[in-house]
Write a structure and sequence with these properties.
Number of domains: 2
Number of helices: 18
CATH topology of the largest domain: Rossmann fold
CATH superfamily of the largest domain: Alpha/Beta hydrolase fold, catalytic domain
Strand content: 5-15%
Mean pLDDT: 93
Strand order of the largest sheet: 1-2-4-3-5-6-10-12-13
Distance between the termini: 25 Å
Structural class: alpha/beta
Largest sheet: 9 strands, mixed
Radius of gyration: 23 Å
Low-confidence stretches: 1-32
Shape: globular
CATH architecture of the largest domain: 3-Layer(aba) Sandwich
Length: 511
């Protein structure tokens, strides 16, 4: 999940950071500081964030008053004297210096870049926002932090297995090609891209900022990163918000498995919304008719790729358009999906159609290499964390077993991806757990990190509290700025006071 880039008013420039003390001995290595002291005590040079005339992210950060710096870390933490890389961070300094609480690291999920987040999050955090130094950090392999770019023909690894065995074989070739491109172009770096190393990078950032503890605000993948950090570096988190959590037991190549039911329900809810607006979208006058239209689109794409402007949309891509449109149940998001489905339906019926601006952007993301770096870096982390079954037949059987129950989404959530062809991870997954008094947020209709995933992490983190947003098909409601005063008030109150609710809470939809 990537938050909106809406800017909030922010403070002016920052002074350079001071030299800080060496880290505690919990860091890896043989010597007391693991040989990492020079990284923790490095001097940060703060500078403007804009890198060039086309750098919209940097320009937005500069306009908000943020500054950027590069933090040097080892490529391989087992060899701190070896090759180094740069981790890019941004900092929007607390404007209420008299009541400054501390530094807060932000992560919006994906995995994706996060350097752009501080101005946006200041607007979400209400009265608490000006009291924090907000830190955006691009995880290694993404954005400005030693980016991995494998020259992919797509910005994402997600594909459906489609309607037929032939479609599945296309998805296998696609996944194998993506992995081969990465091994060919970034093979030396890939073994060191993992959430465990990103957590280590985050602790070096903490030290370089001169902070004994940091606060943390993470959504989606960011909840996994936050819980791994808390486990690897106990006692170094202050106020912690985890929004729409990953179940650590399911993290890895199969992270979408089990989400098909939530997506089917969200699709049905959207279909009811579209049916009530049949005069505008022409997709059917009842929920069942709209769902039949959707099913017809996928079947038509299996017979012959749909001609949508300059794109050819087959049955491995069309379901992903639907999947990507179901992470928010607000009217504006539902209208975007309805507009896209209307175009796809016209292409299926008439032989061709022109995309809306939103669908054009979505198909460019799915079927061109314009944002290859995003998908390359994301897969490097996911595949670098956990091994996946290597036999394509394992995925084919899983798709077939789930196809009847979920014909549109089962072939996505159970399908193959590049991790099946990736080198084995260098480290095992972190066994997440411990005393972590975090405030968690979870929506019961979340289609990405489903509600049981948040319940699972809640059970692993002793001392945590959870806010449940009932009857909402939305992913990352707090960071998204979803209109629910109950959620926003509780989270921002905690960030302001540091006091967790006495018990788990439930919020209901408003309006």
């Amino acid at each position: 999940m990537t938050p909106s880039r809406t800017l909030a008013t922010a403070a002016a420039g920052l002074a350079a950071a001071a030299t800080v003390a060496a880290p505690a001995s919990a860091t890896p290595g043989a010597s007391p500081d693991g040989g990492l002291g020079r990284y923790y005590s490095q001097h940060l040079t703060w500078k403007k964030c804009t890198l060039g005339p086309d750098d919209e992210v940097g320009r937005s950060l500069d306009e908000a008053g943020a500054r950027c710096a590069d933090v040097t870390v080892p490529l391989d933490y087992a060899r701190p004297d070896g090759r180094t890389i740069k981790i890019a961070i941004s900092r929007l300094a607390a404007s209420d210096r008299a009541h400054r609480i501390g530094a807060m690291v932000l992560n919006g999920g994906g995995p994706g870049p996060a350097i752009d987040m501080p101005p946006y999050m200041r607007g979400i955090m209400g009265e608490a926002g000006p009291r924090y130094d907000l830190i955006g950090m691009d995880p290694r392999s993404l954005g400005r932090s030693a980016p991995v770019d494998c020259g992919w023909p797509s910005a994402t690894w997600i594909r459906s297995a489609g309607e037929t065995r032939r479609s599945f074989q296309r998805s296998v070739r696609f996944a194998r090609d993506l992995a081969a491109r990465c091994a060919r172009t970034n093979g030396a770096e890939l073994p060191y891209v993992s959430t465990r190393n990103i957590a280590r990078d985050m602790d070096v950032v903490r030290g370089a900022l001169g902070e004994r503890k940091i606060s943390y605000n993470g959504a989606s993948y960011g909840t996994y990163l936050g819980s791994v950090y808390a486990t690897m570096f106990p006692g170094r988190l202050d106020r912690t918000v985890l929004d729409s959590s990953v179940d650590p037991a399911t993290w890895g190549a199969g992270l979408l498995a089990g989400t098909e039911g939530a997506n089917d329900r969200a699709l049905a809810h959207w279909a009811g919304w579209a049916a009530a607006r049949n005069a505008e979208y022409g997709l059917g006058g009842t929920r069942a008719e709209v769902l039949a239209t959707v099913r017809g689109i996928v079947k038509a794409a299996a017979r012959k790729p749909l001609e949508v402007g300059r794109y050819r949309v087959d049955d491995t891509v069309a379901p992903v358009v639907l999947f990507n449109g179901l992470d928010d149940d607000e009217d504006a998001a539902r209208a975007v999906l309805a507009g896209s489905v209307r175009v796809l339906h016209k292409a299926a019926m008439d032989g061709s159609a022109e995309p809306t601006e939103d669908l054009d952007e979505a198909l460019a993301f799915l079927t061109t290499g314009a944002e290859s770096r995003y998908g390359s870096g994301q897969s490097a982390i996911i595949c670098g964390d956990a091994a996946a079954p290597r036999d394509p037949e394992v995925y084919w059987h899983a798709v077939q077993e789930n196809r009847k129950a979920s014909p549109v989404f089962g072939p996505i959530t159970r399908g193959i991806n590049p991790c099946a062809f990736w080198a084995a991870p260098r480290e095992p997954l972190t066994k997440v757990g411990g005393q972590v008094p975090a405030l968690m947020v979870a929506a019961t209709g979340d289609t990405r990190t489903i509600y049981p995933a948040s319940e699972a992490l809640h059970g692993l983190l002793r001392g945590s509290r959870m806010i449940t947003l009932r009857d909402a098909d939305v992913h990352a409601p707090y960071q998204r700025g979803y209109p629910n005063d109950c959620v926003t008030r509780q989270v921002n109150g905690y960030l302001l006071t540091g006091r967790l609710p006495a018990r788990d809470l439930t919020c209901v939809p408003q309006g």
